[in-house]
Every structure is written in structure tokens, then in C-alpha cells.
Design a protein that fits this description.
mainly alpha, 4% strand, five-stranded parallel β-sheet, single chain
Length: 409
């Protein structure tokens, strides 16, 4: 009688044989074996690249999972797992996690460090809404967790900077330390999503935070309520914006000086440049206008340095902005007319809404003109298809055609 070898996935296969085979293949399957905990031998198999623990009674994954540095696939589906360990992030080569039909309600922020993860199956897991709304896309989920992870690290860094710097004399006092932590949280409410700004806040905390927490709002530290802490955080935010704006103006002033020297070469006295920039700043106060000036400096400055005055530059900026605005409006009108011709049976207000949504993705007026000339190429012939595909599809089609003018695929 011929005897066929037992499959490695067969429930009755002895564990010792499974381990022996896994040492050769890098694949270990303990699925459907009825185990309630992961055998400690598993965490000694550091060459594993795939681990299948599906359809068991496992309730937790020990931190020792981090020993499996070469692990690429982890199958834990069909287990009553309530949480994943933060240490799983050390399995940096993970590409697939199957966590279907588990009892996971949340995910550790540290999983945002799994940059190679391409599949994270969480179907039928009772995730909290803030995680569930992103679970359909592994990219969105990992980006969300990575953001949370970074924010937590920045909170720790800010607290450390405050305790080691401006508040080092009071940080050992329990009431003061508690207030510092509350102030950190209040600052993160003010600095909502911009991590670059938070990093700048950390670098400048000795400059931005008051030396004494009893000033200027008054009262004992232990009696500060949420409104008082929030008010102090709002003051810090306001000071930060002023400093940031001043620093940006200084940076752009230096850039503007460089632009002027490039335009006039040796025909301008270097000592005059700083005075000219100061005169321009007195009339061109908005940072967006200064950025515009730097971008279009070659067109906005007169032929000779002797002609440069603050009022002249301010007038030239205004006139060019008005001209560019007129040109853009004309290009948009041209696109709207082309779309109306493409979709003659559609309500004008709907066509206008589509046009507005599309042009919001185009900065260059010339691109809008070219898009208007080729609407039949970049827009679907049916209006409903155009709205279903959305403005991004139009932009992608245009960008592809622009990069491949000969129609190369």
C-alpha cells in the first residue's frame, strides 16, 4: 500500500516535525491546531519568513514576536485576539498581516513603522471607528498610525525639553510636572497636524514658554483649570506665529538680495541692496506678495538699479498679479465653454462645478488652456463617467499626455 506524506498544514502533524520542516523552508504553519498560546519554540526560529497561526484560540501575542526579524507574512486570522503588541513593529520586513475575524478593537501606533507592509486584512474585526474608517487601505492605515506614533514621540520630546530647560527648577515637583504635561497636550491641540511646527516649538521652547507658570495668568499651579492651560497654549501659539513670520521675512529678504545681485550683477552697490529691500518691505508686507516678487523678480525689477524704488516694485507686483488673474480667468472661461460643448445635455451649473473642481488642480494657466483645447482627450464623453472618475483622473490623463507627447505608454 502506498503511503502519502502528511501535509504540513494537517492538524495532526506533530509539532516537532513542523519545526524541523520550518527550519528548512522558513515557513511554519500551526493553523487549526487548537493552541491557546504560541509555543515558545516559535520565537527561537529566527529564520522564519512566514508564520501561520490561523483558526486557533490564541488570545495574545507575546513581545517575543520581535525576535522574528525576517518575518514577512503573519497569519493570525480566526483567533480571539484583543490586541497586537507594539513590539511587532520590530518585524520590519513584514509585508502581510492577516487579522481577519479577530477581536481587535484598536492597533498600536508603532505599527506605523512597518513601511514594507502591503496587506493588512482586518475584515470582521470590531475596530474603533477612527481605525475602521482607514482599514480598507493599508497605505492610509499605516500613514495614520505613523502620524500618531510621531506625535506621541514629539509629545515626549517637548515635555523633556521643557523639563530640562525652562522648567528644570520645578519639574521634580509633582504638581508642576502634571501641569507641564497638561500644557504639552494643550499645545498639541494648538499645533494640530503640522509636525514641522511642533519640532520648531521644541527647538524654541525656552524662548516661547513663560519662565514662571504662575505668570501671566496667575493662580497656583495646582489650581489651573483646562481653560487657563488652553489660554496659555493659545498665547504660545500666537507668539510662535509672529516669530515664524519674522523668520520667514528675514529668509526671504536674504533671498531677495541675492536675486537683485543676480539681476544687476556689479551694477549695484551692495550697501544699497539692504536699503532697497527695506523700502520694498515697507510697501509689500504680505509674505505671499514677497514670494511672488522673488519668483518673478526678473520681470518685476526695472532695467537699471537706479530706477528701483519701493512704490515702483509694489505697483509692478499689483499690475502683474492683476494681469495673471485676468489670463487665468480667460483660460477657465475657455475650458468652461469647451466642457459645455462636450456635455450639451448637462445642466450648466453641473458643468461649471466640474470645471471649478478640475481647475483647482492646475496651477499653470497655460496648462488650463491646453486642457481646454483637448477636452475630448482628457474628459470622458459621458458626463456621469466624468463625475464618477473625478478631477484627479483628468489631471492624471493630462500629466501623462504632457510627459508622453508622442503617445508613448
Amino acid at each position: 500500500m502506498q503511503v502519502f506524506p502528511m501535509s504540513l498544514d494537517a492538524p495532526g502533524l506533530p509539532f516537532a516535525l513542523r519545526y524541523k520542516q520550518a527550519a528548512k523552508t522558513g515557513v511554519l504553519s500551526l493553523s487549526c491546531t487548537g493552541i491557546s498560546r504560541i509555543p515558545p519554540e516559535v520565537f527561537q526560529m529566527t529564520e522564519l519568513n512566514r508564520l501561520d497561526l490561523g483558526h486557533n484560540e490564541i488570545t495574545e501575542i507575546p513581545d517575543e514576536i520581535s525576535n522574528l526579524l525576517k518575518l514577512e507574512q503573519l497569519w493570525i486570522n480566526g483567533n480571539p485576539l484583543r490586541e497586537l503588541p507594539a513590539s511587532l513593529c520590530k518585524c520590519a520586513k513584514l509585508k502581510v498581516i492577516d487579522a481577519r475575524e479577530t477581536e481587535l478593537t484598536d492597533l498600536p501606533r508603532e505599527l506605523g513603522r512597518l513601511k514594507q507592509l502591503v496587506e493588512f486584512d482586518l475584515r470582521e474585526a470590531p475596530l474603533v471607528p477612527k481605525r475602521a474608517m482607514r482599514a480598507h487601505s493599508v497605505e492610509q492605515l499605516i500613514a495614520h498610525l505613523a502620524h500618531k506614533d510621531t506625535r506621541l514621540k514629539l509629545k515626549v520630546r517637548l515635555e523633556e525639553a521643557m523639563c530640562e530647560g525652562v522648567y528644570r527648577e520645578i519639574s521634580d515637583d509633582p504638581d508642576s510636572r502634571a501641569l507641564i504635561r497638561r500644557l504639552v497636550l494643550a499645545c498639541f491641540v494648538q499645533f494640530k497636524a503640522d509636525n514641522a511646527e511642533v519640532k520648531s516649538l521644541i527647538r524654541n521652547c525656552d524662548r516661547l514658554f513663560p519662565e514662571k507658570l504662575d505668570e501671566p495668568h496667575g493662580g497656583r499651579r495646582s489650581t489651573w483649570d483646562g481653560a487657563k492651560v488652553g489660554a496659555l497654549a493659545a498665547d504660545i501659539r500666537a507668539q510662535f506665529i509672529v516669530i515664524k513670520r519674522d523668520n520667514e521675512r528675514k529668509r526671504m529678504a536674504a533671498e531677495l538680495e541675492i536675486q537683485m545681485r543676480c539681476i544687476y550683477y556689479d551694477a549695484i552697490d551692495p550697501q544699497r541692496v539692504e536699503g532697497i529691500v527695506k523700502a520694498i518691505y515697507e510697501l509689500v508686507g504680505e509674505l505671499d506678495d514677497v514670494r511672488f516678487l522673488i519668483k518673478h523678480a526678473a520681470s518685476l525689477f526695472p532695467p537699471t538699479s537706479e530706477e528701483v524704488t519701493g512704490p515702483l516694485i509694489a505697483r509692478n507686483i499689483r499690475e502683474m498679479q492683476e494681469r495673471l488673474a485676468r489670463e487665468r480667468a480667460a483660460a477657465i472661461a475657455q475650458l468652461l465653454k469647451a466642457l459645455a460643448n462636450l456635455y450639451p445635455d448637462t445642466e450648466p451649473v453641473e458643468v461649471a462645478a466640474l470645471c471649478e473642481a478640475v481647475v483647482a488642480l492646475f496651477k499653470a494657466t497655460e496648462d488650463i488652456k491646453n486642457l481646454a483645447a483637448d477636452v475630448a482627450i482628457h474628459f470622458p464623453p459621458d458626463f456621469l463617467d466624468a463625475t464618477d472618475a473625478g478631477p484627479v483622473a483628468v489631471k492624471k490623463s493630462f500629466v501623462h499626455a504632457k510627459k508622453n507627447p508622442l503617445g508613448d505608454k
